[in-house]
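# nightly structure sweep
# worker-07 picked up a monomer target from the shared queue
# config: single-sequence mode, recycle default, output format = structure tokens
# input follows
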Amino acid sequence: MTMKFGFGQALTRKEDDALLRGAGRYVADVAPAAALHAVMLRSPHAHARFSIHDLDRVRAMPGVRLLLTAADVAGLGPLPTPGVIPGPEIKIPVYPILAKDVVRHVGDAIAFVVADTLDQAKDAAEAITVDWQPLPHVIGAMAALAPGAPRVWPDRPGNLAFETELGDAGATKVAFAQAARTVALTIVNQRLVTNYMDTRGVIAEYDGHRYTLTLGSQGSHIIRDIICGNVLNLPTDRMRVITPDVGGGFGTKLFPYREYALAAVAAERLRRPVKWICDRSEHFLGDSHGRDNISSARLAIDDKGRFLALALDIVADMGAYLSCYAPYIPWLGAGMATGAYDIPVAHVRLRAAYTNTVPVDAYRGAGRPEAAYLIERLVDAAARDLDTAPDALRRKNLIKPKAMPYTTPTGKIYDSGDFAGGMTRAQEIADWNGFNKRAASSKRAGKLRGIGMATYIEACGNNGPETAVVRLERDGGVTVLIGSQSTGQGHATSYAQLVAEWLDLPPERVRVLQGDTDAIASGAGTGGSSSIPVGGVSVDRAAKTLAEQLKQLAADALEAAPTDMEIADGTVRVAGTDRAISFVDLAAHPQATPERLSATKDFGTEQPTFPNGTHIAEVEIDPDTGATAILNYVVVDDFGATLNPLLLAGQVHGGAVQGIGQALMEDTVYDPASGQLLSASFMDYAMPRAGDAPSFVFETRNVPCKNNPLGVKGAGEAGAIGSCPALINAILDALWRSYRIRHIDMPATPPRVWAAIAAARKAQSA
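# output follows
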């Protein structure tokens, strides 16, 4: 029977009532009695030698309890880089918990001060005497790889972190030699700052044997294993990590950071709770950044407009250190280089550079937005060069459903999808064929109108494995314990729906427990759009197993056959009769052992899922100001199956707005001369607001996933993947129609668009 709370139902989020009333509990809300407060002292230089003096004077200041420098934590291990890639041997530089002697980016950490109050800690940090000897620095990956550039690391010639390749260079060269036409494009995928609602923080406590860290994260077990096991060099059972409510993560809260280890050390030495909360400006300087690629692409095309080969040269900026998964991110993106297109051969050269900037790591989509942006910009450029419609060129080259499973030139195996079908449906909704009439109307009003699309595909949904425990409680409710971590996605609702599929309980009767390493044995955390594709399968299987156990238990209690039992409305009953036993009575039954009231199942897979879809954006540009207005925005996605339409739409909307931010306004700007971060606050770093977001039209056109037992494809990152190329393609469509402007880089800010128009007007008049 269809469960009214189960799979596919549009339930509102059970989490929202408390959050909207201000009753959430974020890390900054945690306030243990007698807690001390910590501040990090950071480098004002991009690259410098330094020495610290007068520490005894600072330690004697009012309220100061502890001052830690590199010498005080010499026994701690560095932050590790587990995200290495197949192929090249990467010599990973030491990423120290506190820099010793040399800093390598503005914001590099050199001292940790703990005091009775936050103001006292700040005063002490400002009073520390530091002698600085500035060293030559380099900003930007291309500058770093240029001959003679200053070295970020003395033993890394040419600032090359690593170089690798994917695909077949020989076959690609042959295909280009046979091509009737080639198209080339170089684009910038700019650096971004991950701005979530609540900044990072940690409260560390020590009881004489074990550490307890309360912090905002995307996975408590990951933080515990790295901070305790790798940095403190202790058995992981010596640490408990608790994650309360989290106001956004987007990849950046998945990683361990220096402050977590330092707070733990401080709590041990002082035998008092130690609290550190990052302020927003410090977040810009200390937390990992995202994106930052410069890519050159060439596409070989035959005389019928079919794609023959793709050649890419990608340069990724790593920043000063290799953050947790940093090498893996551009490599993951390079694996999706050919997108949804039937391109027989490809070759990708990937280089990563060290620069004197904040380290870069995963940010919503983690490599796949970069890949989709590159191929979708390139296909639009090819359509303009061939004087053909961008949708027609796509339709000719998109992989056909009958070709599934399809192996790409970089080794990905797409299991399912109807890419052209989704594109056609998006065009219908967007009234693609009626665009010229609307463009004429805009022209009469003195505006430039453009329409653009992106047909994206990504690989995700295979982080794990994940173990779920589903347990019937004495009150007749159910508890789910799982190691994934909600950072605002609505896990408590979605997991409750999977439980309801087998146990027919409303969401309020299902309690989801995450983020506590003592209560939950293991966990892969939340990343790579894997919570439902991996964690959801575990919950589904555990709930199904528990349902079978409860039927057996009820059959024993009611002296009936297990095959005659059915579950409905919190009871187990003999089908077709009024003989039933409630979950409450069942939990209290003499034969109801803990083993019979609980089920544990895990799921893990190497095979990713491949969400895909089409974004279509229609924009209007004011040529006198360069301002872009989004008039219409349509998304048609294939997510395999939809667990909850409301939650799904929220994920797509949120991701698309992040893409709008990158496409139109967000930019992380360093001054090459000084190495200073010029966009280090919301005064200088533009973020999308409600007024910048259009009214989205969103549909699914699902093709069940063959790689996933639930048929689902990961959805959390998809909105951020299709949005940037769709918007920039729309802007370029408008600029091309009026001024033959072929290229613009993100962010397409009003000054940048206005300058492109002014230059084109000048060229036309000349």
